Amino acid sequence: MACILHIETSTKVCSVAVSEDGKVIYEKADMEGPSHAVSCGVFVDEALSFAESHAIPLDAVAVSMGPGSYTGLRIGVSTAKGVCYGRRVPLLSVSTLQLLCVPVLLFHEEIPDEALFVPMIDARRMEVYAAVYDRALREVRGIQPDIVNADTYKEYLDRGPVCFFGDGAMKCKEVITHPNAIFLPNINPLAKYMHPIAERSLMRGETEDVAYFEPFYLKEFVATKSRDLLHSS
Fold this sequence. Notes:
It is built from 6 helices and 10 strands; from the N terminus they run βββαβαβαβββαββαα.
């Protein structure tokens, strides 16, 4: 196992954590944001000081790769790269949508085993970025922008229970009224939940190029939709 610094800034929540040997040993979060420009650097400094005070060497830095807020991700990724350069440790990226699934798996035992997970990041109006995962976090459908209506996820809902969560989910509750739809409130992507995914990536050698890594900004939603409209006209 390893000691990993985790940084999550994809939504209005800013959080930082340190994990060692599969356990979270330090974590701090600001749920009142967005105040990433102020909070992120301070939280990271405090996390690194905690590790150093306990003589725990840092092995890697994990950062949420989005989709998410342009400003938040830029701050988080820039901070992560700075630590990687300064400490000469590898950079790991964690999908924000996969990360959202972790607290559901950990704390919602009432969810049926066959349920599919649809984490949602709010874009605007009835637009979200979403993916579809099974309980093992295998992709059933990849990440894509969705304009949500009653039929957007019907093919999955017709098969069985589907859990919707994330900051884009609750606005869809009145639109998605299928009896197999389950909505879970207050599920946030937090740094303290990153370690299972980050440790797996580190063990597999799935690291990022610190110089060239770029996260998945929500502004790409507009570009994607514009291209689709042009191609369909």
